[in-house]
Fold:
Amino acid sequence: MKYQISLVSLVFIVASISCSRRPPSSDQEWGGYGGYFPKMMEREYSLEYAQPGLGFRGTGRAKMVERYEGEETIAGKKYAKFVRTFSDLPGVESREELLRITADGMYAVDSGHREKGETLSVPFPLTVGQKWVRHDELGDLNCQLESIEDISSPVGVYPDCLKITLKRGSDDYQAWEYLAKEIGVVKGGFRSGRDKLAFALQRFK
Structure:
């Protein structure tokens, strides 16, 4: 069975580390992300999983690499393309996502379903405690910016990380991730029944 890792790509434009967040003024500010998700970077993550019901049949370790691979124009709109590749994770294929920023939020296109158009992933402005809904092919995700925390990972200690939580209303799926300044996602995971996965940043460049 093919299975999608639900590492939801979230881009936040953060003007300061107060609870007030301001959006970018145009697509030209894609390159900065306020430091929370720089696109000119490659990140490698270690994964630990326990998914007896989804073809994994036990527990194990794997690796995921996420990288920026240029831009693509669809219907006159310019998107940044991100690619995730996996190793030692049975049944999971590489994944592409196309993202763009406007004054009212970040929009995503699933590269495997371009005909469905873009969906709003993150609304702007964004404040701690804010909730929103993201639509994808598996159903609606209830998202929330829960807090700003200091996080430790195998690479280091990161202050002022954004903690994002995601829940799917139709089942018991829950996910979470932490974004650090100048790096992006450094830690996260998901849980659904007995199935679970955790990941942590190992290196970046």
